[in-house]
Amino acid sequence: MVSAPTGRIAAPRLVRLLGAWHAAGRPASSALVSALRLLVLDGRLPPGTALPAERELAAALGVSRTLVATAWEALRAEGLLRSRRGAGTWTALPGRPRPQDPPQDQPLDLARAAPAALPAVAHAVDAVRGDLAAELAGHGYHEYGLDLLRERLAARYTARGLPTTADEVLVTNGAHHALALVLRAFTGPGDRVLVDQPTYPNAIDAIAAAHAIPVPVPLLEDGWDLDGVAAALRQSGPRLAYLVVDFHNPTGLLLDAGGRADLTALAARARVPLVVDETLAELDLRAAPPRLAPVRGPGTVITIGSAGKSHWGGLRIGWVRADAEVVRRLAAARHAFDLGSPVVEQLVIAHLYADPEPAIAERRAELAERRDLLVGELRAHCPDWGFRVPDGGLGLWCELPGPFSSRLAAAARTVGVRLAPGARFSVHGGLERWLRVPFTLPEPALAEAVRRLSRVASVVGGSPGSDGEGLVPVA
Ligand SMILES: Cc1ncc(COP(=O)(O)O)c(C=O)c1O
């Protein structure tokens, strides 16, 4: 809680921010309360902003001083304003949690779609102690990755329908590092990189950090616009294409076998290497799915994978699967970044991939339960949000009843919920009607997060039947 003002807003500017606050058919003081509450909750009036004196603001608004005083009294009671003789009145965020709310120093994090480690990870950490002695006797630098892990990852690809040998696998520090390496090896400043839109935000950042230019091809409501991809390949001359076709982040969409064949044919014809991010590929939540094989050529296909979502992101282990020649090129590019991935973490994943199915099945079951709970909670508490229930992946891509995703994300912070608004998933911003809601938190935390979101959404989005009266923000 801010105990003294740290900035000031002049009366004319506050009047402009308040805009058309005076709602017809509603007491003026309650309309002023709602309008100012919204400014504080969505971050346009940051905590610690000193407000003009009541008399000055009343004159600027053309209302009585009593009306302003009444509204300020109500906002003080909510914890959104504080006053002290001599220091005036300033904005604040309410600090007292209600008894049933979890502690606010641990925000409910819906900005990251990343589950906690499976218990199998801790067991694997214990199990690899015995294997460590042999590694400790060596120098520990393996720029391609440990042979054991490369072999086991290759075996998993083969089992999934894409015959692979160990020399076609490069171990990396997560899928994100894998993409950075591919960009380093395949693109230069000013090159274009075709991407889905929406897409994984850190991929957009990695492309920008490589001084390349992302060229977005918007997804259709139910899948990939392959005509759009063909046109972008023709018109933009990209150096690389980066797509997430398995339980796409954020939409959860899956490109079917026919679509995969068409996509690779298009990229091969345009001679554009295709980077397929398979980070979510193992997270197929269907009971009896027709599992699709990983994307394969014609043409150059570079597959990026990760143990981050299936097992645990904290291990920071990912990989690239590509022709041995491409793998050599990436290992050479790696020297500018790092000199290999941590050995103990690789041993842990190698242990888990000796028999990968049980742990992955456990993760799928956990995520399926959480997805179903989130679907139920959103239908109950946010009935005007639209979404498709995805067959896999880590989140729901929700269509909000209005363009307020960023405002909702700002307001959600005040109730201890972190969100990544739709604009984060877009190359040029926008997507304000969209919000990704991951189902990676445990069930009670997910239910609590939705309850809090529904309260702030009714204020920020002004959903029918609610003007936010009765909102009790908790952080
Ligand atoms: C599509 C996609 N690619 C890459 C990553 C990053 O994976 P890692 O933690 O292995 O770097 C994520 C994480 O959410 C992702 O969703």
Q: How is this fold's topology laid out?
A:
Layout: E1 7-8, H1 11-18, H2 28-41, E2 49-50, H3 54-61, H4 65-78, E3 81-84, E4 88-91, E5 108-110, H5 119-127, H6 129-136, H7 147-159, E6 169-172, H8 174-186, E7 192-197, H9 201-209, E8 213-218, H10 226-236, E9 240-243, H11 257-269, E10 274-277, E11 301-306, H12 308-312, E12 318-321, H13 324-334, H14 343-352, H15 357-381, E13 395-399, H16 405-413, E14 417-419, E15 434-438, H17 443-460
Parallel strand pairs: 1-2, 5-14, 7-8, 7-9, 9-10, 10-11
Antiparallel strand pairs: 3-4, 6-12, 11-12, 13-15
Helix pairs in contact: 1-3, 2-4, 3-4, 5-14, 7-14, 8-9, 8-13, 10-11, 15-17, 16-17
This protein binds pyridoxal-5'-phosphate.
Pyridoxal-5'-phosphate (PLP) binds near residues 113, 174, 277, 279 and 313.
